[in-house]
Specification:
This protein is an all-alpha fold. Helix content is 70%, strand content 0%. It has one domain. The radius of gyration is 23 Å and the shape is elongated. InterPro entries: FxsA.
């Protein structure tokens, strides 16, 4: 993993050189500038949306995984777009596609834990909670 982070800038530079050689230097520069502006616009829009979700959560609504997974992921994709190079741009596009992003998150996070629901006594409808300790151990 460390090797990937060390090689990434050089691989990004190689892809930009290849793009400039195949098209023109001006096209490569315009590509870098366009992805920078696009990343900035997405980050600005996503930041406003995140503050709106935080205000809604503060008003009493439940703060769910949507803020953490969707909003933060799109913000991360915007940051990836701002880096010059084509590898991070492809990674940003993968992160921005919602179903693909959720599938990748499930792959890395593993199975989701079931939320804790206290057991109820069927006759009295009272919640029974507590701690116990075995004395014979």
């Amino acid at each position: 993993m460390r090797l990937l982070f060390l090689l990434l800038p050089w691989l990004e530079l190689a892809t930009l050189i290849k793009l400039g050689a195949e098209t023109s230097v001006l096209t490569a520069l315009l590509y870098v500038f366009a992805t920078l502006v696009l990343g900035l616009l997405i980050l600005q829009r996503q930041g406003m949306g995140m503050f709106q979700h935080l205000r809604e959560a503060q008003a009493g609504r439940v703060l769910g995984g949507r803020l953490l997974l969707d909003d933060m992921a799109v913000g991360f994709a915007a940051l990836l777009l701002m880096f010059p190079g084509m590898i991070t741009d492809v990674a940003a596009l993968i992160v921005m596609i919602g179903p693909l992003r959720r599938r990748i998150a499930r792959f890395f996070a593993g199975p989701q834990a079931e939320p804790y629901v206290p057991e109820r006594d069927a006759q009295s409808h009272n919640t029974i909670e507590g701690h116990y300790r075995r004395l014979d151990d």
